[in-house]
Amino acid sequence: MKIVHRHNLTVVSLVLLTVIFPLNAKELMLTGQISSSAKQIVSAPQASRWQIQIQWMEEEGKVVQAGDPVVVFDGANEQSQLEQNKESLERLLLELEELKLTQELLVSDAQGRLTLAKLEVEKARIEASVPESQVSAYDKGQYDLALQRALLEQVKAEEAFNSAKKERVSQLQKKEIDILKTQEDIDYLTMLLGKMNVSAQFTGPVTYAMHPWSDEKLAAGMNVQASWKILDVQAIESFQVETWIHEVDAVALQEGMHANLTLDAHPKKAFVGHIKTLSTQTESRDLWSNSAYYPAVIEFASAPDVKLLPGMSVRIIMELDNDS
């Protein structure tokens, strides 16, 4: 029985093919590539605009050391905004100190008027407490009226004092909110700028990603959108094989199945492995066909005795059960 893999035969060597050879058991032949389980995928960061420019990228294929810079994005706009916000923050902090002094003076003034009003009440109360037998009815009436006026002024002074204290709290809170918002903007822009310069997390080669629209390698000077894959850095250790399996062929495979592996760089050597993971989620591979493909990872049974590098092509032969 013949199984035909539905990959586009015109794609470069990374395209995965499935072919059946007329042996005693059915065989599914795939191609994959060497990768490392220790992989750093660098994506375009979120910026203050919908696109961001790649300013610089490390040379593709170069083996970088952990900590080396690999890509720099244009952060001029964010840097400009950051400087403006820092200046605004300094201004707001000065305004806060001035506001504290101003509001404190207003509260102190209101408190002083309240103290004076209370003294006037005490004075008026003493005068109003003089017995009627010792003053004329007219004077007694004037003293009582003065007491009522003093009490009214005290109420007004208390209201003004309480209002001044509330106004102080309100004005300071508004200014502190402005400061907090500006500080949050500074922290956010600082975080963004920190993502504009990306360093390698592993020691290994740099591999550029493809532009999702034009199918060309990304390069310095291009404008990209947030979350686009820009490049990856794979460690030169913990090697495995990545492959994609057509949705029709995937039904015959499962995790743990044996795989025979041959490296195109070392065609006379044979290696064995097994399917470590077989995704349950499909991915579209527009350049191959309109079908869906399942990503899979094949693990070597033992470390190969040859030098491996991420990106090396691998031929994979899966032996299927006769009733598959």
Low-pLDDT residue intervals, each spanning 5 or more residues: 1-24
CATH class of the largest domain: Mainly Beta
CATH architecture of the largest domain: Beta Barrel
Number of strands: 15
SSE-based structural type: alpha+beta
* Large-scale geometry: rod-shaped
- Could you name the CATH topology of the largest domain? Elongation Factor Tu (Ef-tu), domain 3
Q: What number is the mean pLDDT?
A: 89
CATH superfamily of the largest domain: Efflux pump adaptor protein, beta barrel domain
> How many domains in all?
2
- Share in β-strands: 25-35%
Helix content: 25-40%
Through-space gap between termini: 10 Å
Mind summarizing the main beta sheet? 6 strands, antiparallel, barrel
Structural key phrases:
324 residues; alpha+beta; six-stranded antiparallel beta barrel; rod-shaped; 3 helices; disordered N terminus; 15 strands; Elongation Factor Tu (Ef-tu), domain 3
